[in-house]
Amino acid sequence: MTTYRVFREPELVVASHNQGKVREINELLKDLPISIQSAAELNLPEPEETGTTFVANAELKARSALEHGKKAAIADDSGFCVEALGGDPGIYSARWAGPERDFSLAMRNVEEKLQAAGARDFNRRRGYFIAVLALIWPDGHIETFEGRVDGTCVWPPRGDKGFGYDPIFVPDGHDRTFGEMSSDEKHSWGNGNALSHRARAFEKLYSACFEPAIKR
Predict the structure, then answer these.
(1) Please, what sign has the CA dihedral across residues 27, 31, 36, 41?
(2) What is the SS3 assignment for 172-199?
(3) List 31, 76, 77, 102, catalytic entry
(4) Is the dihedral of CA 109, 76, 185, 208 positive or negative?
(5) Residues 89, 80: contact at Cβ < 8 Å?
(6) What is the pLDDT of residues 100-156, one digit of tens each?
(7) Exposed, middle or buried, 126 (CB in 10 Å: 0-12/13-18/19+)?
(8) H or E element at residue 142
(9) Phi and psi angles of residue 13, each rounded to the nearest 5 degrees, phi first
(10) Does 166 qualify as catalytic in the annotation?
């Protein structure tokens, strides 16, 4: 059985400059008795994501936040993977949106490539979101947790909630895109009911590192 370190630090930095991710992580952390700030609020530099996996990039961002902020940090690396595109955009999901982070462009790129691949039937438009959360302590100890949600790519985009590729992704068992779902629907967690990839990763992190400290 894997043993994880229990988190008892009073402060935590959300190691992201992406306001959508910061908002979602803050929503997941809101009930914890911890003082939380984002990397943007602390004017921490945004590291270049040079890792070749989601885990490597999440750990890289967590270590950078610790190095510059001198506090425990939580970092996320996540992406949208489309099976017919060989797993792309994957770790390059943000880069597909260009320097302006134009995800309408990124979603069009996905659809154009799916059409070019002849992926028009639902069973050829399978995709999934992955999120890895890395939690780092002031002494450099780090734990990582992964969440995944599978579904189907749709076109045209639907909904104006969420961010990124949410409007073109319908999770399995649902008929609406993430872009049509409220934050509560996506991020409610507990008892294995988490829906979004980030909430599923957080559910694992919470039970391993946060819950034992709260129960004591």
Answers:
(1) positive
(2) CCCCCCHHHCCHHHHHCCCCCCCCCHHH
(3) 77
(4) positive
(5) yes
(6) 889 999 999 999 999 999 998 989 999 999 999 999 999 999 999 999 999 999 999
(7) middle
(8) strand 142-153
(9) -100, 130
(10) no
